[in-house]
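task queued by scheduler; priority normal; single chain, no ligands, no partner chains; default sampling; output format set to structure tokens
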Amino acid sequence: MQSLTQEDLIRTLLKKWWWIVVSIVVSMSLAYGGWKIFPKTYKSTVIMTIDSPKVAKDYVKGLGGADGKGFEDPATVAMQQVLLALTNKSVLVPIIENMKPYPDSEEATEESVIKRLRMAISVARPKEGLGIGISYQHSDPHVAQAVVALLVVKLQEDNAKRREGLVETTTEFLSVELNRVKAELEAKEQAISDFKKDHIGELPGQMEANLRTLDRLQADLTTSSESLNKGGERLTALEKAIREFSEIGSTDVVPVERGGRMIESRSPDPRGAKLEELRQKLNELLGVYKENYPDVVHLREEIRRLELEPRVAGSDQLGVGETTGGRVENSGKVVRKPIDPFLRELMKERNELKSEMAFLKEKQAKTVRQIKELEAHVQRIPAAEQRLTILVRDYENLQKGYQSLLDKRTNARILGNYESRQFGEQYRVIEPANLPYGEEPPTLLHFLFGGFVLGCAIGLGGAIGVEFLKPGCRRPEEVESYLGLSVIASIPPFDNMTVGMGSAGSRALLPGPKTSVGISGRAPSHYGYGRNWTGAGSGTKRASFTSLPQAFHLIAKWGAHSIIAEQYRVASTRLLLMTAEKKHVVTLVASSIMGEGKTTTAVNLAYVLAHDLKKSTLLIDCDFKRPMVHEYMDISVEPGLSEAMLGRDSLDNCIHHYEGIPLSILPCGDPKVRPASISGIQYVKQILPELRTRYDHVILDGPPILTLADVNVLGSLADQVILVVRAGLTSLEMVRKAVKQLNVNSDEIGVVLTKVEMEFAPYFMYETPYAGKTGRSGE
């Protein structure tokens, strides 16, 4: 289904102009009544701003507006403060108690009165852009002026109290926060101190000292190892010398019993060899170390002692495994001789060397332990550094926060004195409250304009909505594009002919003669044939009744020169062209539902075929539930199909012949014995072959398709189907279902679209004088 085009909208507006005018008039009348009822109000306005502080803000950081944002925009700050103050009861309640602006609300609650007062107050920037405007609306202009003046005073007092209270609250809050942060700062300092105590040697600053100590201990360890190696060599040499000297004996002859005889042996002096050996080692050490090296100093002292001391008396004891010279008595006992002083010196030196080596080994083990401890400290330094960094960072952050809070508290204390002496921001009135003389919008003009707009919306929307919400199609193009069926005629509405035949009230989609025609004075009326019409002026006749009889639907006869009759002639001509190959044609005229103009189309097609096209035509009324052919053709209902079917009369006697033209009519018959739809259709099927041969064209006025299941039987009997569709009533989906139920080919169906609005407005028929001369139309 197509949407409304621009032409459709214009046509709808022209047709429904009275609807639009009535809507506008009614809406504007209601708007005027609303203005009379609507209470009139007057608005008094005061313009104020915020004065800058009296002390430069570079020296004292004041409270910059409602949120402490600075002095950038005084108007914005003032608006924020005023809006905030309007939520405070301490500002509004004194106004209500002193001014009593709403005497009719004495019994109302305080909250409702405050809400009403707050809604009547408005805050906005004035057009000049300087400061802010505070307005109050009231039905009494003097009350409005007094209320807004008192409101400014209360706002100034509230601003001063609010700022002082804000300073006090800020100072108290900062003091509490400062104590809390101070406690946290002291706790963090103690945590850092405890951490340093627990991690001595592992702190980041001790890394260099630990590394130097490690280097020194490594050097000591190397020196101790070398000393132990050299001491081991010396000990080996001493052990060898002592062993050799013990074997050889002293320089005196010592008899030794060997094999039963005494052998004398002289011991050489080993001191010279010892000195030579010590001097050689000293030279080796001086080639590597300095004079102050401990081993060098020790060797020099040893050489000096050996050079100064002669042979020292030794001990009587020898080392383990040592032997001395002596003689063996007969009893087998060895008689020991006194130990040689040199041997005693060697043994003493060996013992000292062993003690020194034991000390070096203990020192070496201690050094190794110290190295391991230092290495562990060095390995733990990164972790300790990270933990210490976190502690220090938290401490520094707390320290910064503490310093910031301390500065803020100091500034808050200064600001308290600053505000108490009224050096800060203060409200200043630029323009005092005025006495209003004119009422506030909406005025009468606003109400009337709103009523006009509402009326236009209702009128235009209603007219277009009614047209758009029509369920059926409006133009033949919609039927052809949606259903694929050809439209053979578009019939305009002619029910407005009951009002006057001379009016140009109907429109058609196909052009017709643009002249007026009158209806014959012998046109049918409630009063019978020949009843004259009363004149309505301009040569046009009007009926003296409000509705026409059913016989007037035969427009092809009574309005032969009308566009409607011309469209029926077009439909008849196209019907003949569609069935030109057949000699005897049966045409079924049907519709989807009742009330689409099916019977009107059938009787007019039959009349045009017989009268204008000179075809012998038979019109059969097959709508057994609601037969209307006899009323439209103005003939008797009996005898008809009922009598012929029951055998009460012959078929030929039941066929009525129309006067003067080759048109025959077979009505439904007596309603008392009227057959059922199924039996009647079967009887028509039985007699139709015989009737087909008698007439050039047989037209069947069938029942609505969607209300009777056996209509497809009539469709199978017909050579051509005329489907009547009422524009704006029947939906295309219903038409599609009807076509499907007929079960015939689409090329055997022609559509007659009824009640079609015309795109132009030609006169409905010719002038009355011409009709009067022609006499009865169609005759």
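post-processing summary
- The longest strand covers residues 42-51.
- The chain has four domains: 6-38+443-468, 42-163+418-431, 222-371, 476-774.
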